[in-house]
Amino acid sequence: MEKSVTIDEGQRKSENGKILIKWSYTLREDDEKITYHQIYYDIDKSLSVLGEDENEKWIEINKLDLKDLSSISHFDYLHSFLKSLKHKDDLLEEFKEYLKKANIKFKEDSWQSFPSS
Asked: pLDDT tens track of the chain, all 117 residues?
């Protein structure tokens, strides 16, 4: 069973209306794991730390590590939790903090792409 929902997406514009950055935060579920994924598209290269075009971060949670979480649907529970977080800019950090406090194991990783020229 595969599911995917968007937690947040949007873009930030400059005062003159130019798009500076776009982002998308998603939660996905497959048969073995639940993955929280953040991707940023740096349209204005002055905002990127290393000159990257894209910056992705994700957290993978093995479903077996959620067995102690009292919920009928772990995916729906985590989706509701993520939607309830107030600080969208720090959502990944808040989510990691929650998982640590709840003693839920997770794997964290990231990836960046750079222009070819």
From this structure: 699 999 989 988 888 888 888 899 999 999 999 999 999 887 666 655 555 567 889 999 999 988 877 777 899 989 999 988 866 667 899 999 999 998 999 999 988 766 665
Contact 56, 111 (CB under 8 A): yes
Task: For residues 19 and 12, give the distance between their C-alpha atoms in angstroms, rounded to a whole number.
Answer: 6
- The tokens describing 14, both together, are 């400059």
What SS3 state is found at 84?
helix
- Domain ranges within the chain, ordered by starting residue: 3-113
Q: Which of 36, 107, 103 is nearest to 67 (CA)?
A: 103
Sheet-wide strand order for 33-42 = 3-13, 19-29, 33-42, 54-62, 107-113
DSSP 47: G
